[in-house]
Amino acid sequence: MANSAPTVSPLTTPGLRKNGKQWHAKKSAFRPTTGQTSYEKRTAGQKAMTAMKAKEKEMKDEKEDRRQRRTQAIKDKRAAKEEKQRYEKMAEKMHAKRVERLKRREKRNKLLKS
Fold it and tell me: I need a labelling partner for 35 at 20 to 30 A (CA). Which of 5, 13, 96, 114 fits?
């Protein structure tokens, strides 16, 4: 039993490097075809990428549309408020019936212009 010490093959435990640069990564043999993928895999990846980009674009467009609607609603509300204030200011100076008549006339002109 003199030879009962376990022998470790050099392939399983590399041990220390001969040049002493243990901090460097281990190098392996250069294989030029290792990074290549098949045509089917590439086309499948491209299809998935285009589908994802289309979905992202759709989501961005929806978000932009919501933002535009919100800003347009705010602008419409402000315009209505300004118009109301303008009519109130006119009502202070003029008779109420005349203000109503002017309102109707302006609405008719707006409809004709648009």
Answer: 13
- How confident is the model over 69-84, as a mean pLDDT? 95
- Are 87 and 99 within 8 A, CB to CB? yes
Specify the pLDDT at position 14.
65
- C-alpha to C-alpha distance for 21 and 61, rounded to whole angstroms: 55
Taking the C-alpha atoms of residue 69 and residue 66, their distance in angstroms, rounded to an integer, is 5
pLDDT in tens, 84-111: 998 888 877 777 788 888 888 888 887 7
d(CA 88, CA 73): 22
**The whole model's pTM is what?**
0.49
In this structure, the number of other CB atoms found within 10 A of the CB of residue 114 comes to 5
Distances in whole angstroms, Cα of residue 78 to Cα of each of 15, 21, 53, 63, 81: 78, 73, 37, 23, 5
| Alpha helix positions (H), the chain | 39-93, 96-113
